[in-house]
Amino acid sequence: MQRNSNRPLVVKIEKIIEETPTVRTLVFSDEIFSSVLPGQFAMVWIPGVNELPMSVMITLEKGKGAFTVRKHGLASTELYNLKVGDYIGMRGPYGNSFTIKQGKLLLVGGGTGLVPLVRLLTFLKKTDEVTILIGAKTKEEVFFEKLANQLLENNKHQVIVVTEDGTYGKSGLVTEEMEKLLYEKKFDAIYTCGPEKMMHKVVQLAHTKKLHVQASLERMMKCGMGICGSCCMGEVLVCKDGTVFDGEYLLSNKEFGFTHRNKAGILENY
Amino acid sequence: MKPDISTKVGPIELERPTMLASGILGISLEVFSRLYKDGAGALVTKSLSKEPWDGYPNPTIIGVKAGYLNAIGLSNPGAQYFAKMIESNKTVPIIVSLVGSIEEDFTFMIKQFENVKILGYELNLSCPHVEKVGLEVGDDPNLVRKIVKSIKSHSKVPIIAKVGLGSSDYLETVRAACESGIDAITAINTVRAMGIDVETTRPLLSNKIGGLSGSAIKPIAVRCVYEISSKFDIPIIGCGGVSNWEDAVEFILAGASAVQIGSAIGEKWTDIFSEINNGISKYMEKKGFSNINEMIGIAKKF
Ligand SMILES: Cc1cc2nc3c(=O)[nH]c(=O)nc-3n(C[C@H](O)[C@H](O)[C@H](O)COP(=O)(O)OP(=O)(O)OC[C@H]3O[C@@H](n4cnc5c(N)ncnc54)[C@H](O)[C@@H]3O)c2cc1C
Ligand SMILES: Cc1cc2nc3c(=O)[nH]c(=O)nc-3n(C[C@H](O)[C@H](O)[C@H](O)COP(=O)(O)O)c2cc1C
Ligand code: FES
Questions:
Q1: Looking at the structure, do residues A127 and A209 belong to the same domain, yes or no?
Q2: A3: in domain
């Protein structure tokens, strides 16, 4: 029987990986969700609680999918607190994906925004030269550094961690480090996902150097499939036209970097 | 000569017969402009209430066989905020959908749009999953009479009533609206329905019960349009499961002057409007119809 991708597919959590004191990766078995495109997401049902959009995380095992969740408000905390053997449901995969370029690539991510970037790494060619900038507030919030190095083993690569308080790696904002890199090196493409203010800066920096840049965005999502309208940003629907957009388009959209809509559809500032 | 696909829904003139249904993508003026450019003849907003509403927690919409179940809970930014958001509108044919439970709710909301360019209002008398509004109003013909009369006396633009299948005879709601001076009827809203996940044994929607939309309800909606058009002399907008030009034509033949498209946008995206407009046009050419009016309700002659 053909599966209806818009109805929650319910699976059991098989494994939980502690990434940081507030971030966990939940692993489950499913062929379709094990092989989605970089940038695609699922609507994840936490039975009895809520349903949240989540980027689909990679695993190193065949036939397995995962979500990496940071505990934040009520719903994400309930998801974070689930145990091995508990059920989650998922609809999708939804959304478009990053356009994969070749050559010298720069990836800039922060927090769970690293999830689609890590998946992107698995789509790159061995000949690509990859630099990945990982931003975090402080040392204990850094994750995926080892995984990124492992995935890029066979590439010429550099994984640079930047913490705001300087407790690990370089000190400062990840975008300050990016600015320095842009002076030293040439890049063929830049990809970013993370807090919107960070992505806005990344896109602006890339734009001044006329570099190809794409960002994967977040907005309030209810349906995830281009019906309800809650994820609108100007004239685009982030769940369907995105979540990945070209930097050039984003700079022409007056909401990018500044405003998003709440559950009622009222614009709020970032 | 190319057939003319413009249409009239009573006093409302549309360049094209395909409208955006309420609650679908209808949240910003920029999205409306885009859909208008993409071929929609008019755009119905999300149903607005007096105060902003967050709606129900997710899951609020899921797919089922041949359609969708939703219980969004009428999330909307409120009439006042929405009116401000679209006040710069000059060219886009917007119909404002309103939901409320008493006359005063509606008069307050209409006041907000006094100086905004809109084509008309659509009263949502048929939301199947929110208490005290929608169907609960639609199921009470006396309340419908009071509300429609009051809005008619305050509004400068035409008023459409959107009906659905509630617990009383929907044709009585139509009758009450017609007798109170309504300009047109939209039929139908979603149909009360639910889904349960067998693995967790839980209802799928957070509100448990929601409304069914999409292809699954099209034959029901066609029947309602046919019934209303057979019993009342009132312009009708057909809604429910339109996903291609044949569906649209079917509604017109049953008695609709225009159609609204909702769920199918999720699959065909915004190209759906021009695809259906072109399909209707080709059908008219083939069949020798020169305008939409010649086709409205002709299935009734059999
Ligand atoms: C495409 C996409 C991919 C995402 N991927 C991940 C991921 O891989 N890992 C991860 O931890 N988080 C991810 N998020 C964010 C996640 O969906 C939640 O926003 C976040 O976990 C907070 O939810 P909460 O309900 O716990 O917080 P709350 O305290 O209830 O809300 C805090 C804020 O979270 C946002 N939010 C809440 N509900 C939603 C919703 N339904 N849709 C969008 N934003 C919402 C709003 O901005 C809200 O103000 C993603 C979001 C999107 C849109
Ligand atoms: C997610 C969603 C939200 C809706 N919100 C509203 C609403 O706010 N007001 C309303 O009158 N109808 C609402 N509807 C009903 C639609 O306007 C339409 O009547 C129904 O979906 C049938 O048409 P369709 O099969 O083309 O979707 C909603 C439907 C969906 C799927
Ligand atoms: S989340 Fe519903 S349209 Fe994007």
A1: yes
A2: no
Could you please report the per-residue DSSP string of B192-236?
A: EEE-B-TTT--BSSTTSEEEEESGGGHHHHHHHHHHHHHH----E
Say yes or no: A153 and A77 in one domain: no
Q: B270: cis peptide before it, omega within 30°?
A: no
Q: Are residues A90 and A127 in the same domain?
A: no
Question: Average pLDDT for residues B155-169, to the nearest whole number?
Answer: 93
Distances (CA, A) of B151 to A74, A91, B161, B162, B301: 41, 42, 11, 14, 35
- Element containing residue B139 per DSSP (H, E): none
According to the model, what pLDDT value does residue B2 have? 87
Residue A2 lies in a domain: no
Q: Which amino acid is at B109?
A: M
Residue A227 has its nearest CB partner, among B34, B61, B77, at B61
What is this model's ipTM? 0.95
Residue A251 maps to a domain: yes
The answer to whether residues A173 and A119 belong to one domain is yes
Q: Give B-chain residues touching A230 at CB under 8 angstroms.
A: 27, 75
**pLDDT tens digit sequence for A170-194:** 999 999 999 999 999 999 999 999 9
Kindly state whether residues A218 and A123 are assigned to the same domain.
yes
- Maximum alpha-carbon separation in chain A: 55
Residue A1 has pLDDT above 70, yes or no: no
* Ligand 3 atom closest to Cα of residue A227: 3
Q: How far is B150 from chain A (nearest CA, A)?
A: 27
pLDDT range class, residue B233, cuts 50, 70, 90: very high
Q: What are phi and psi of B217, to 5 degrees?
A: -100, 0
User: Residue A231: which domain range?
Assistant: 104-269
Q: What is the pLDDT of residues A59-117, one digit of tens each?
A: 999 999 999 999 999 999 999 999 999 999 999 999 999 999 999 999 999 999 999 99
Last residue of a domain, one of A52, A75, A94: A94
Choose which residue among A51, A218, A239, A244 to substitute to test ligand 1 binding: the one with the highest number of ligand atoms within 8 A of its C-beta.
Answer: A218
Q: For residue B216, name the pLDDT band (cuts at 50, 70, 90).
A: very high
Q: Which domains does chain B have, with CATH numbers?
A: 7-301 (3.20.20.70)
Does A4 reside within a domain? no
A227 close to ligand 3 (CB < 6 Angstrom): yes
Atom of ligand 2 nearest to the CA of B221: 22
- For chain B, list residues whose CB is within 8 angstroms of any CB belonging to chain A: 23-28, 30-31, 33-34, 46, 52-55, 57-65, 68, 70, 72, 75-78, 81, 195, 197, 199-200, 202, 204, 206, 262-263, 265-266, 269
Contact B60 A228 (CB under 8 A): yes
In A, minimum Cα distance to B27 occurs at A229
Tell me the C-alpha distance between B24 and B22, whole Å: 6
pLDDT over 80 (residue B1): no
pLDDT in tens, A202-226: 999 999 999 999 999 999 999 999 9
Catalytic residue annotation of B: 127
Of B296, B151, B284, B295, nearest to B235 by C-alpha is: B296
